[in-house]
Amino acid sequence: MSKGAVLYCPLPISLNRRTEYGKLIEMRDLPERVYVDNSVVSGMFDENDHPERAKPFWNAVFAGRIRVVLSSVLDDEIEKAPSHVREFYRKIPESHIERIVSTDESDTLAEQYIVAGIVTDNSLNDSRHVAIATVARVDVLVSFNCTHIVKLNRIRKYNAINMLHGYPQIEIRTPDEVIQ
Fold first, then answer.
1. What's 30's DSSP letter?
2. Domain total for the chain?
3. Mind listing the pLDDT tens digit for each residue in 10-66?
4. Tell me: the pLDDT tens digits for 115-140?
5. What's the pTM value of the predicted model, to 2 decimals?
6. Of 72, 120, 133, 161, which has the maximum CB count within 10 A?
7. Where residue 145 sits, what CATH number does that domain have?
8. Bridge partners, 100 (sequence order)
9. 44 belongs to a structural domain
10. What H or E segment, with its residue span, contains residue 112?
């Protein structure tokens, strides 16, 4: 290509594609199944920037643009949360929720994260959130837990264990990254 040449690219570019059977797969702007941990629910009431960062995510959930995947581990954590957090959690429309439970399979995977030293026993629920989301094959796990979950070196380690045990890699992000 000569200097100053312009490469033509018609816009908008469609990311839609057809399967081998001709079925059209539409690439969505937002993920369809988003696993939520406790930090995203309680984050609406934190005294930092989390409420401002979480609000667009929850607006998309309440508008039906995102389907949240909520686990039995999250349910247990919410029961121990302050009443205003429990009240907010109960307002999430059931039609926008997929409920899943911890299983022997996810518990075993969570233990593998601990054995590998990704987190300690003190962070069992954090490892359980990642394992449950992995086994459920969600599109993305969202969290504000940047110590034990949303941290690049830990994400790489979670994914290494996932692949070692035959699971896909899991996408882990903060709520605001999912909405951008």
1. S
2. 1
3. 334 334 444 455 554 454 566 689 999 999 999 999 999 999 999 999 999 999 999
4. 999 999 999 999 999 999 999 999 99
5. 0.82
6. 133
7. 3.40.50.1010
8. 71
9. yes
10. helix 104-115
